[in-house]
C-alpha cells in the first residue's frame, strides 16, 4: 500500500436548491462514498485506512450545518461553510495545512471505519477526536431483523397482565481503551434494544466504573442528527447506565467524553 500525499486543496460547494453543502478534499485516488445517516454522506480513499474524508455532503438545517458536523470539519472549514451559506455564495476554495488534514482524519476516524469496512460491525470502537473530546461509534444497523414483527405477549394467569418485553437483542461491545480511561469506566459496554409502541426503539447501555476518578463523563446519543446526548448515571448497584430512544430505522450510537467544567 503506497503512501497517500494530501495537498490540502479543499472545495466548498453550497447548493441552496438542494439544501446541501458539499466539501471536497481533492485527490486522484479511488474513493468510496457511504451514507452515514439521513442527510450526511462521506467518502474516503479506499487504500488509505488512516486518511481524512475526501467528500462530505450534509443537508442544511435552519440555514446551517448541524453542530456535530461543524465540529468534525474543524473551525476553519466550518467557518468558511457558514460564510458561504450566509452570503448565498456558491462556495470557494481553502488551502489546508498538514495539521488540518491530519485533524480531519482524526476527527472522522469512526466514520471512516464504518465506510471502509461496513460488512461486519467491529467488536471494538475506533477512536476519534471531537472538539477537544474523544468519541466513537457503535454500529447498530443489524437491529432491523431482531425487531421485525414484535407482538404483545400475555401471562398465562387469569389477570391477563402483559409480560415484560424481553430484550430483542443484547450484546457486549468495547469502547476504545483511551476513551474508557478518559471517563473512568471499563471498556465493555452492554447494549440492549427493545421495541416500543409506535415503532420506536429503546436502547439501554451499561458500563462499569473502573480506575481512578475521571475529570470527564461518558455520554451517548443516537446518530440520527438529533444532537441529543445522555450522560451515564449510576444505578443503585453502581453500574453506569444511559437510556436512548430512537426511531425504528436502524441508526448507530455515538459515545463521547464530556469534560467536567469548573463552576
Outline, from the CA principal axes? globular
Rg measurement, Å: 20 Å
- Identify low-pLDDT runs: 149-163
Query: What is the number of helical segments per DSSP (H or I, 4+ residues)?
Result: 6
Report helical residue fraction.
10-25%
Mean pLDDT: 87
Q: What is the distance, rounded to the nearest whole angstrom, between the alpha carbons of the first and last residues?
A: 50 Å
SSE run: EEEEEHHEHHEEHEHEEEEEEE
Portion in strands: 35-45%
- Strand order, biggest sheet? 3-4-5-2-1-6
Provide the number of structural domains.
2
Largest sheet: 6 strands, antiparallel
Please provide a written account of the structure:
It is built from six helices and 16 strands. It has a six-stranded antiparallel sheet with strand order 3-4-5-2-1-6. Mean pLDDT is 87; it is low at 149-163. Strand 12 and strand 13 (230-231) form a beta hairpin. Helix content is 19%, strand content 35%. The protein has 263 residues and is of the alpha+beta class.
What is the topology?
Elements: E1 9-15, E2 20-25, E3 31-37, E4 40-45, E5 53-59, H1 67-73, H2 75-87, E6 91-95, H3 98-107, H4 109-116, E7 128-130, E8 133-138, H5 143-147, E9 169-174, H6 177-183, E10 188-195, E11 201-207, E12 216-222, E13 230-231, E14 233-234, E15 240-246, E16 253-259
Antiparallel strand pairs: 1-2, 1-6, 2-5, 3-4, 4-5, 7-8, 8-16, 9-10, 10-11, 11-15, 12-13, 12-16, 14-15
Write a brief structural summary:
The protein has helices at residues 67-73, 75-87, 98-107, 109-116, 143-147, 177-183, and strands spanning 9-15, 20-25, 31-37, 40-45, 53-59, 91-95, 128-130, 133-138, 169-174, 188-195, 201-207, 216-222, 230-231, 233-234, 240-246, 253-259.
Amino acid at each position: 500500500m503506497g503512501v497517500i500525499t494530501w495537498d490540502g486543496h479543499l472545495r466548498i460547494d453550497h447548493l441552496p436548491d438542494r439544501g446541501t453543502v458539499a466539501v471536497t478534499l481533492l485527490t486522484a485516488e479511488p474513493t468510496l462514498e457511504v451514507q452515514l445517516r439521513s442527510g450526511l454522506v462521506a467518502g474516503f480513499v479506499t487504500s488509505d485506512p488512516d486518511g481524512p474524508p475526501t467528500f462530505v455532503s450534509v443537508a442544511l438545517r435552519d440555514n446551517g450545518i448541524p453542530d456535530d458536523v461543524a465540529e468534525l470539519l474543524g473551525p476553519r472549514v466550518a467557518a468558511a461553510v457558514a460564510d458561504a451559506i450566509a452570503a448565498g455564495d456558491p462556495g470557494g476554495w481553502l488551502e489546508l495545512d498538514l495539521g488540518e488534514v491530519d485533524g480531519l482524519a482524526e476527527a472522522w476516524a469512526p466514520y471512516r471505519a464504518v465506510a471502509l469496512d461496513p460488512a461486519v460491525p467491529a467488536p471494538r470502537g475506533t477512536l476519534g477526536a471531537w472538539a477537544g473530546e474523544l468519541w466513537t461509534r457503535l454500529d447498530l444497523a443489524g437491529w432491523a431483523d431482531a425487531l421485525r414483527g414484535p407482538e404483545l405477549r400475555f401471562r398465562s394467569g387469569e389477570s391477563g397482565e402483559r409480560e415484560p418485553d424481553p430484550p430483542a437483542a443484547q450484546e457486549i461491545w468495547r469502547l476504545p481503551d483511551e476513551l474508557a480511561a478518559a471517563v473512568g469506566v471499563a471498556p465493555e459496554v452492554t447494549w440492549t434494544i427493545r421495541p416500543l409502541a409506535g415503532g420506536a426503539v429503546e436502547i439501554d447501555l451499561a458500563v462499569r466504573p473502573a480506575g481512578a476518578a475521571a475529570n470527564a463523563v461518558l455520554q451517548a446519543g443516537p446518530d440520527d442528527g438529533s444532537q441529543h446526548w445522555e450522560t451515564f448515571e449510576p444505578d443503585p448497584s453502581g453500574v453506569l447506565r444511559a437510556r436512548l430512544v430512537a426511531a425504528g430505522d436502524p441508526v448507530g450510537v455515538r459515545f463521547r467524553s464530556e469534560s467536567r467544567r469548573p463552576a
